[in-house]
Each structure stands twice: as C-alpha cells, then as structure tokens.
Design a protein that fits this description.
There is one protein chain. The protein contains 13 helices and eight strands. With about 400 residues, the chain is α+β, with helices and mostly antiparallel strands. A hairpin with a 2-residue loop joins strand 3 and strand 4. The model has no long low-confidence stretch (mean pLDDT about 85).
Length: about 400
Amino acid sequence: MSRRLYSIAAIFKKPDEIMNAAEKVSSAGYTKFDVNTPYPLHGMDHAMKLKPTNIPYVTLIMGLVGFTFAVFLQWWTNGSAMQIGAHDLMLPRWLERYPFVIGGKPLFSLPAFIPVIFELTVLSAALSTIAAMLGGFCGLPHNSHPLHDTDYIKACSCDQYGIYIESNDPNFDEAKVEALFKELGAFEVVSIYRPFEQRPGFISHALFFGFLIATAVGVSGKAYFVYNNLLYARLVIPGYGVIKLDDYIPYNWLVNQPRLDAQEKSTFFKDGRSMQTPVVNTIARGYMPYKYAGNADAANNDKVNPLSLTKENIELGEKMYKITCSMCHGDFAKGEGRLHGLFPTPPSLHSSKLKKWSDARIYHVIVEGQNVMPSYAKQLDENERWAIIHYIRALQRAMDAKESDLK
C-alpha cells in the first residue's frame, strides 16, 4: 500500500534564497505552505504574507470572561439572601450567600474586590492564551507530523533553509511545484509522505478513557477519604484503648508539632501555663549583656578596642559604617548625610570633642545611643562595632593628616 503525499519541499543554502522563495510562492497564490529555518529571519512574515494572529482576541475575550466571573462571584458570595417577595429562596447549601458585614461597609465593596478581579482576569487570559496557541493555532501536540524524523527537517534544524507546499493546497500540482522550486534555485527538492496510520478502534478508546476516569476517581476519592475521614478517625482496641490514626501516619510533624500554641494549657509546668516568664538572673546562650548600660564614664575607663588595626578590620568597618552610619553622618563623617535637612543634623565626627573621646566612649554611644540616635546593638555585633570605630579613626586621621603621613 503506497503512502499519501503530504507535501513537496525544497532546501536552500542561503537566507536570501529562502526569502525570495517565500515571496515567489506566496505571490503564486499558494496558501498551504510553510518555511523552516534554523533561526528567525527578519521580514519572513512579510515575505510569506502572513495575516496577524487571532490570539489577542482570545486573550481579550477570556480576560473579559474572567473579569465578569470574578465580579459575579464576589457579588454573589457577599450579598444578602436572595428573596422572592418576602420569602427566601431555599438554595442548596453550596449556593448560600455569606455576606461580610464589617463596620458599616457596603456588601458590594469594589476596592476590596479588585485583587480577586485582577487575579482571575489575568489567570483566565493567560491560561486560555497558552491553551489556544498550543492546542488550537499550532495544533500541538502533533506527534505523528509527517515532517518528523525526515532528512528535510534535520537539515532545516541545522544550517539549511526549507520551504514546503502541502498537497491539500487548492493550487497544488506536483509537477508544477517541483518546477517552481527548481526554477527558484533549490539545492534539493524532496517529496514528503504521510506515515502509515492505524486508527485505534472503539475498544482501545474505551479502555484508555476508562483508565483515565478510574484513575482520577480513585485518586480523588482516596485523597478525600484520607484527609476528611481517616486522619480524624479513632480506633478503640479492647485492652489497649483509643488510637489516633494521625499519630501513626508518616510525615506528620506539621500536624503534631512538639510545641505549645499561645495561651494553650500546659501539662508540663505546675501552674498549667504554656507561656512562662524568663528565669531571674539568666541570660541566653552566647549572649552577654552590656554591663556599662547607662554608665558612659565607666565604659570610658574600662573598655579598649580589642580588634587589631588590620586592613581586613578597616574594610569591615567601612562596609558597616556605610550601611548603618553614612545616611546620617555622611560618607566622610562630616554630619552631611543623605538625610541632612530631614532630621536633626548629627555632629561632625571630626570635632575636637569627638577626637578626644576614647574608643570605648564611641562604642558606648553605638550600643546605647545618644540624643536622637538610637541604639545599634541589635544591628551590629561586637566585632562590627569595634571595626566601625577603627574606620572612624581612619577618617579622622585622613581629614587631619600630618606631614609624616604623606611621605
């Protein structure tokens, strides 16, 4: 049995040749043809005289459908009970309306509906566009397409350019098409035939769709039973007691967490409270409270900078200074930061007063804060604070450099 002819195809070597071939074929009145190239060619749509796609209309229509459905859904669910005269409509439970009465706001509150309207509009438009493009306009999936696994499509997927005219074109004539391609200078003209088709019978269709339906029903039914009945079931075993099945299912640590919710009763503590006050005179592991809180003089007399003056520590101090300090004090610590004029102007760190401060005194201000400056104890760890002090000293030295520093 001979196979049916699908199309006559031609292969060209250069992009200019395929552009010319597309123009000639479209000008000759052929409509059932297509071009295959290894990469997009600018101007090919014009050469093939392709009409604009109708996909935007699908997007528009389905977007409006999603918009309308979102408005109707929220109007229905948030409205008052439907009535005919003085009698309520006895609607099924899943159709009952559930109005939100909040602070005298109207039941149909459009600003509150905007997020849902937006989401359903975009979702409906996007999904329908993809489905229409792949399934409708492109005809995918087409696993038995005659071009698949042919030498023609292999060449067009690599470094050559092809065009083919389908045999169902109204103007198709095998001899005329071959002559046209040869006249256009085709490198090779090939005939492409349809593969042998063996259509599945009724029994095959019934078995396939029956399997799909049985799988969907089985999985859905099992999930419904497990998550709505089995997990909440209790088994009474004589001589043992009551067994909660959710204690024995795998991966249940999100359901049964070893913790207590806020205000939940505790069976561990004597007072029955789940929320306990911290034990007096205890501190968290790895945390040492600042012992000079509220006593700048004591800090000034005791603490010294424990970080050595190295390039790495200076670079760390510069990084953290620009993150936490520069917006107020400025990049050069002159009190001309990016917030200048919006908040009280901080003092320059190059004043004689600040230069006379010890490193520990500056450290105390970073930890405790001063005036309108808040504490940065939570933002900076101990090493970062001392590194910032090293960087401030470097800025002070740079702005008041000695002659010996320039040698």
